[in-house]
Amino acid sequence: MSTINLAGITVPLDEIPDLLLPAFVDTVLMVSIVMVVVLVVGVPLGALVHNLAAGGLFENRALHTPLSWIISIGRSLPFLVLMTAIIPFTRLVTGTNIGIAAVVPMSIAGIAFFTRIVENSLRSVPASTIDVARASGGSNAQIIWKAQVPEALPNIVGGLTINTIAMIEYSTIAGTIGAGGLGYVAVTYGYQRFDQGVMVAMIIVLVITVALIQLAGDALARSLNPVTSKRVNH
């Protein structure tokens, strides 16, 4: 049985799948939970921030400025710093700061990231679209959900794809402090044991996973873009 031995403690090559599969499932579970939270919170929050700004449906500088600053702080902090800084809050919410508790800092980072994506996507909606919705007698909520968001949906989906890939990266960082998943395997076997076979296999899994997510996200965004859809159909 062949092995790659750099430090005297390695995993046989035929056992690597049994090691990586549970870690991959843990990573998918963490990222899936986080992205559901990000989607549910990020879209309404992004729409709120956009419409509180100058020229929005319900412009309010007094509310927009502090909310925007809070989001910017969450967006600008390196994930490892954020994860460490909110350990007391994570323990309060989950009762622990290891394992699946990583979804708390990941969700906060993801929401801040995705809120900005949604906000920027809504800025690209033509003013004429909003004017038509207003002339039709639509309420602010109807304009947001039936005009702004649908018009910006291709860009939002593109941003969601980027955010999902970022959360995979964050999950590996969280794994370094006991959150499980591929990050934990990377530290335990790739770093502490210098097991090159496990590291190469994990890198391949991550590259393929990210590539598939990017392809799926790009395809969905194209299908939601009327101009692109017409070109494809013709």
What does this structure look like?
The structure is a single chain. The protein is mostly helical and 234 residues long. The chain has one domain: MetI-like (MetI-like fold, Orthogonal Bundle), CATH 1.10.3720.10. The protein contains ten helices and no strands. α1 packs across α5. It is elongated.
List the helices and strands and how they pair.
Elements: H1 16-52, H2 61-76, H3 79-85, H4 87-94, H5 103-123, H6 127-135, H7 140-175, H8 181-191, H9 196-224, H10 226-233
CATH architectural group: Orthogonal Bundle
Q: Characterize the main sheet.
A: none
**Structural class category:** mainly alpha
Query: Strand-and-helix sequence, N→C?
Result: HHHHHHHHHH
Count of extended strands: 0
Count of the separate structural domains? 1
First-to-last CA distance: 55 Å
Number of DSSP helices? 10
Tell me the Rg in angstroms: 21 Å
Mean pLDDT: 86
Level-1 CATH class name:
Mainly Alpha
Low-confidence segments, given as residue ranges, are: 1-8, 228-234
- CATH homology superfamily: MetI-like
Global outline = elongated
Q: Which range best describes the helical content: under 10%, 10-25%, 25-40%, 40-55%, 55-70% or over 70%? A: over 70%
The CATH topology label is MetI-like fold
Residue fraction in strands: under 5%
Offer a few descriptive terms:
234 residues; mainly alpha; MetI-like fold; 10 helices; 0% strand; elongated; disordered C terminus
Give a short synopsis of this structure.
This protein has 234 residues and is mainly alpha-helical. 78% of the residues lie in helices and 0% in strands. It starts with 15 loop residues before the first helix and ends with a helix.
